[in-house]
Amino acid sequence: MAGSAILTADAMRAAEQAVFDAGVEPYALMERAGTAAAELIWRASCGRDMLVLCGPGNNGGDGYVVARLLAARGVPVRVAAMGESRTESGIQARSLWTGSVEALADARPASVLVDALFGTGLARGLDDDVAGRLCALAERATHIHAIDLPSGVATDSGALLSPVPDYDLCIALGAWKPAHWLQPAAGTVRQAVLADIGIACDDRVHALMPPRLKAPGADAHKYRRGLVAVVGGAMAGAGRLASRAAAVGGAGYVRRLAMEADHAGPDAIVASVAATPDRLAGALDDRRIAALLVGPGLGRDDAARARMGIALAARRPLVLDADALMLLDADAVPPGSVLTPHDGEFAALFGDLPGSKIDRALAAARRCGSVVVAKGADSVIAAPDGRAAVARGASHWLSTAGTGDVLAGLVAGRLAVTGDPFRAACEAVWLHGEAARLAGAAFIADGLIGCIAPAIAGRL
Ligand SMILES: NC(=O)C1=CN([C@@H]2O[C@H](COP(=O)(O)OP(=O)(O)OC[C@H]3O[C@@H](n4cnc5c(N)ncnc54)[C@H](OP(=O)(O)O)[C@@H]3O)[C@@H](O)[C@H]2O)[C@@H](O)CC1
Ligand SMILES: [K+]
User: Fold this and answer.
1) Are 286 and 412 found together in one domain?
2) Which residues form the YjeF C-terminal domain (predicted)?
3) DSSP label at 153?
4) Which of ligand 1's atoms lies nearest the C-alpha of 65?
């Protein structure tokens, strides 16, 4: 099941146009948007005094609707504007507001600030005086709400084009926009809520949903549940972390193919020494391997390169992470793989691609015919067929050594279980984020693995 759609500004305009073409009056859509936003702000504001900042476009029009509807419910509302409204719907919304309109420059603060200055039509950063005023009023408010988007964020990339205050609530109208999900814009909003205004959306790019998982069936056995092989390298600990994550993540059987004998790690994981090319090739010559992970702790020397070559030649479903991504050429990635790069690995592999993180991940996925998990505080999981899922809100405690190895192992485990690279990557990213949430504060990668089982249990 896909999550709610994420639309660029252009795609949003096209979706709105389709609604108008179907016979809905443009102003009626603005009333729907303002009504949905007013309801959410009403619930969050408890009747406190309110200042609505209205811009010159339709985002400002939404603001006038919100002000009118909340004033009708008895909320003490004032409106401050940046000059006149310039759109037909905005002019109509303003004409229905019967209160006074203050100049933004002179507006007095209020307990609740509603930002309806700019939405998807923002073309550049706010002028210094406008951004300064917005931030100063936000500083004095106890509750700050954004209509559709925080003013000053680039809708499609999530970049901050001018100073942006911190918001308590952002009400996304009709569909999510990339800025609700991508950093740094997503980090300016404590809670984002999607308001349905009756727009049909293409959901190829969507919010990552919690997965629906299944417990093993009565006919399950270790091979049917999925055999994962992990190619170990110079740093054995990374391979051990990934192997444990693959096992806990659902694989029926995990084999760790190490450079040298060590007896660390759970006994349930079968560790064998496969240091020479022949031993490794022999170990990988097993059609039952449902997912083959290479990269964590692999190293970057000639021996590492040789081990990676053997792994690629095994022609098993691949998960490529860490050092494998630094050794590979993008054109040499076997199609159908899953790649899990952080920003640095992504740039090393694919260069400086244009567009948002979503655009870049989709272009990379198309180029190598594989699923690309562009991981970070916001993670984009992109498939070569144009689907993408975006995750946000990952615990900042994940910024510690080994958590990437855990994610790679989880992807391999879910790939062995599902046989579907995009689904496996989506499930793994969600479980990784949920395990971190359950782990709480100050965990290390080993502790994160301990929280994967409860994360899975919550989705059965
Ligand atoms: N379509 C619909 O019917 C519906 C749309 N909806 C709502 O409309 C929003 C999109 O509305 P929008 O397209 O009018 O854009 P909006 O963000 O209000 O601003 C554009 C205006 O700002 C100006 N401007 C831009 N940047 C500037 C800057 N830095 N500093 C100063 N000025 C700047 C720009 O003029 P410019 O100077 O670029 O020529 C233009 O005048 C959307 O987010 C949602 O809230 C909902 O009601 C549902 C129905
Ligand atoms: K806004």
Assistant:
1) yes
2) 205-459
3) B
4) 47
